[in-house]
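[Q] Does anyone have a clean structure-token version of this?
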Amino acid sequence: SIMFYPPGIPLLMPGEEVTADIIEVCQQLLAGGAHCYASDPTLGTIRVVA
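[A] Here you go.
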């Protein structure tokens, strides 16, 4: 899962599709100073489990 604080709720959960819109929101949140909670907090990589 990928979660940002604030707001503190998951943006992406296991089983959900990673879309361009989701990536854009992640980039905006990181640029705005939100803290990312994921396996790679920089989101340089996203762990995908098939």
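[Q] Thanks! Anything notable?
[A] The first helix runs from residue 20 to 31.
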